[in-house]
Amino acid sequence: MCESTELNMTFHLFIVALAGAGAAVIAMVHYLMVLSANWAYVKDACRMQKYEDIKSKEEQELHDIHSTRSKERLNAYT
């Protein structure tokens, strides 16, 4: 029984299955790393969009204030 070809083939199939399981684990770890990187990118992009919106509103308010003061100055001279 110990010298049969089926037992020898079983050992080789076990090694192949073990290598396949290792490759599957590596693929899952890679997937989780990519998923977390994409999540961080999206989160950062969301924060950057909020910052750009606030910055744009503040610039618009400053422009409005400046244009109002300029109109007041022009009206004061006339």
TrEMBL record:
<feature type="transmembrane region" description="Helical">
    <location>
        <begin position="12"/>
        <end position="41"/>
    </location>
</feature>
<comment type="similarity">
    <text>Belongs to the myelin proteolipid protein family.</text>
</comment>
<comment type="subunit">
    <text>Interacts with OPRM1. Interacts with palmitoyltransferase ZDHHC17/HIP14; the interaction leads to palmitoylation of GPM6A.</text>
</comment>
<protein>
    <recommendedName>
        <fullName>Neuronal membrane glycoprotein M6-a</fullName>
    </recommendedName>
</protein>
<dbReference type="GO" id="GO:0043025">
    <property type="term" value="C:neuronal cell body"/>
</dbReference>
<dbReference type="InterPro" id="IPR001614">
    <property type="entry name" value="Myelin_PLP"/>
</dbReference>
<dbReference type="GO" id="GO:0044295">
    <property type="term" value="C:axonal growth cone"/>
</dbReference>
<keyword id="KW-0812">Transmembrane</keyword>
<dbReference type="GO" id="GO:0043197">
    <property type="term" value="C:dendritic spine"/>
</dbReference>
<keyword id="KW-1133">Transmembrane helix</keyword>
<dbReference type="Pfam" id="PF01275">
    <property type="entry name" value="Myelin_PLP"/>
</dbReference>
<dbReference type="GO" id="GO:0030175">
    <property type="term" value="C:filopodium"/>
</dbReference>
<dbReference type="GO" id="GO:0031175">
    <property type="term" value="P:neuron projection development"/>
</dbReference>
<keyword id="KW-0472">Membrane</keyword>
<dbReference type="InterPro" id="IPR018237">
    <property type="entry name" value="Myelin_PLP_CS"/>
</dbReference>
<dbReference type="GO" id="GO:0005886">
    <property type="term" value="C:plasma membrane"/>
</dbReference>
